[in-house]
Design a protein that fits this description.
By secondary structure, the protein is mostly beta strands. The protein is built from no helices and 38 strands. It has two domains: about 20-335, YVTN repeat-like/Quinoprotein amine dehydrogenase (Methylamine Dehydrogenase, Chain H, 7 Propeller), CATH 2.130.10; about 340-435, Macroglobulin (MG2) domain (Immunoglobulin-like, Sandwich), CATH 2.60.40. Helices cover about 0% and strands about 50% of the residues.
């Protein structure tokens, strides 16, 4: 939980922020550009991640340990979904030779069968049950199966560069693409109705009427858009500069997340997750640990329920040096928003980082710091480190106005011991020590 406040002369501004509770649970060391493209969990503890051309990995203990699954290496896998505990599908392709692959398991990943698709690139898949499923291609059609992938029929949409699709049931589906292409079916793809739409990137419908998508305005500006009439009309609900936004993931009509990254000076990217709990009226920002990172961006997110979720990274910058793939986990929905509250006192004249209190603590403590009056829109970070110097929480990572701030850190997910917290700005850095005793 974060509680912050500041006073600006003659003006009080209210923001919404969230404590970072996306913790790195797995990092795979690599000597090449390693990307985890997609994640899917069948329960809070059992899940799967596709890692490019180097196999599917599986966990059965909530991400503590991961095992490579036999029969899944050698494919450039990009998407994965399970329709039950036992039955799952993974999608991939050989881009240079334009050969698509669909992998299927009926025993929780122990064995996989492979189906080849000639002269096509497969983008993503969607199954609503064990038998009816769809595959989106980069060309002008969708594949459909009604027998669990044994046979596939093509459905033409007359539109190239299809980017995203979603089905809310076996009959009602939506497809979007570049050049303002949008398609809808209500009869399982027998007919597709085309209309103009946004050049969107990700697409997620929660029912036949309400859907969310992300759109690039410019190279460094993105929108989140929403429809309430099945895609006939879209309206902007969120705009952010210096930001790349990826796929949305909605559990309910009102509660959803959007992955992305924000770009700072020197093109350093900070992984970012946006969350709404009121259908997109308000969004608050979440971040992951291990920031900043010039190499990896968020590639996918999967929420098992409103609390437990997982996110993966892909390599997204040739100028970066970190080639490792990462998996992050939250057990509190990524954190809940707490609005800034005013601290009614004089604006500080210098930077100041206070000792946390109480100290020692178990497991909640508060940290106060001050931003001086002569600093406007200061880029400020407040980061928690363990005794080894590893980042365990990013409490603040944004531009702040002059004022006095108070933050509450809940370390309930961490072990007892010594921790350090560092306040950093362009011309200031200070570190203090604290002790948690459970």
């Amino acid at each position: 939980m974060i509680r912050m406040g500041f006073i600006i002369i003659l003006q009080l501004t209210i923001y919404v922020v969230s404590i970072s509770q996306w913790v790195n649970i797995y990092t795979e060391q690599s000597s090449y550009y390693l990307s985890f493209y997609s994640v899917y969990f069948t329960s809070e503890s059992t899940g799967y991640v596709v890692r490019g051309d180097s196999a599917i990995i599986k966990t059965t203990n909530g991400g503590l340990n991961w095992l490579s699954l036999n029969g899944t290496s050698g494919y450039n896998l990009t998407d994965i979904q399970f329709t039950s505990i036992n039955t799952g599908y993974a999608l991939g392709d050989n881009f240079l030779n334009r050969i698509g692959f669909l992998l299927k398991t009926t025993n929780s990943g122990t064995n996989w069968s492979v189906i080849n698709f000639s002269d096509i690139t497969l983008n993503s898949l969607k199954f609503n049950d064990d038998t009816v499923g769809y595959i989106l291609t980069d060309s002008n059609f969708v594949y459909k199966t009604i027998n669990g992938g044994m046979n596939w029929a093509t459905q033409s949409l007359n539109g190239n560069f299809l980017t995203s699709f979603d089905f809310v049931d076996a009959n009602t589906g939506f497809v979007s693409g570049y050049y303002a292409k949008f398609y809808k079916t209500t009869n399982g793809g027998n007919n597709w109705i085309s209309s103009s739409g946004p050049d969107n990137i990700g697409l997620d419908f929660v029912d036949a009427n309400i859907g969310y998508s992300t759109v690039f305005n410019t190279i460094l500006s993105s929108n989140i858009i929403k429809t309430t009439n099945g895609g006939s009309n879209w309206f902007i609900i969120y705009t952010r500069d210096s930001t790349f936004l990826g796929d949305p993931f909605f559990l309910y009509v009102s509660t959803g997340w959007v992955i992305g990254s924000k770009v700072r000076s020197n093109n350093i990217q900070y992984r970012m997750i946006l969350k709404t709990t009121n259908g997109g009226i308000d969004w608050f920002e979440q971040s992951t640990s291990l920031q900043p990172d010039s190499s990896s961006c968020l590639s996918s997110i999967f929420m098992v329920n409103s609390n437990t979720g997982y996110a993966t990274t892909l390599f997204c910058s040739s100028s970066g040096t970190d080639l490792n793939g990462k998996i992050f986990k939250t057990t509190n929905g990524g954190g809940e928003p707490i609005g800034f509250e005013p601290v009614y006192s004089n604006i500080p004249e210098s930077y100041l980082l206070h000792q946390n209190y109480p100290n020692p603590f178990n497991p909640v403590t508060k940290i106060n710091f001050e931003i001086p009056v002569n600093i406007a829109n200061a880029s400020v970070s407040l980061i928690i480190y363990d005794i080894t110097g590893k980042i365990v929480s990013v409490l603040v990572d944004e531009e702040l106005q002059p004022g006095k701030y108070e933050i509450e850190w809940n370390a309930g997910n961490f072990t007892s011991g010594v921790y350090f917290y560092t306040l950093r700005s362009s011309n200031f850095k200070e570190t203090k020590k604290m002790l948690m005793i459970k």
